[in-house]
Amino acid sequence: MAGIEEKVREIVLPFVESSGLELWGIRYRGGRDHAVLQIYVEGPEGVSIDQCGELSNLISPALDVADPIGPKYTLEISSPGLDRILFTKEQVSRYVGNIVKLELKMPTDGKRKLQGCLKSCQDGILNVQTDDDQIFEIAFTNVLLARLVPVFPAGGKKTSKSTK
Fold first, then answer.
1. How far apart are the C-alpha atoms of 90 and 118, rounded to whole Å?
2. Which of 60, 133, 136, 154 has the fewest CB within 10 Å, making it most exposed?
3. How many CA atoms are closer than 13 Å to the CA of 116, on its beta-carbon side?
4. How far is CA 92 from CA 75, 109, 128, 139, in A?
């Protein structure tokens, strides 16, 4: 699937950048009868539904012509959201001090899923401190899925928890 995502990246990146947005990430989930292609974009002030719609109108025909995906699929273009997937080490580095949820390819200390405060991300190694004060060192290459955990304070605005 990484091959499909890379082909899609090459096709859509010029459209995203010309719209003044950042290509946050691409996820392709194939299915027997139908697949979903998710393209996440971000802007300096977020991204609106109108921007996503405009981008979809540009990208969809380009994907139809290039045809990088065989079966029928649904194209979804959206903001990464508050619980955003972190696709790259650089994205992970932006959220040091925040709570993250990780799914691992190989268990670390017997755990495949972790949630905790991201203490650092250097040289491809993530240091995550869990609620029970354990510190886990995880190679980014061992991360199957990294996701930011939004924190919703009582009576207020949605924010990401920072423990800086």
1. 13
2. 154
3. 19
4. 25, 21, 11, 12
Is 147 in contact with 83 (CB distance < 8 Å)?
yes
**What is the DSSP code (8-state) at residue 91?**
H
- 135 contacts: CB under 8 Å, gap ≥ 6: 119, 127, 128, 129
pTM (two decimals): 0.84
Provide long-range contacts, Cβ within 8 A and 24+ apart, for 128-134. 128/100, 128/102, 134/109
**pLDDT tens, position by position, 97-128:** 999 999 999 999 899 999 999 999 999 999 99
- Encode pLDDT of 13-29 as tens digits: 999 999 999 999 999 98
For residue 159, list its beta bridge partners. 151
3 state DSSP class of 80: coil
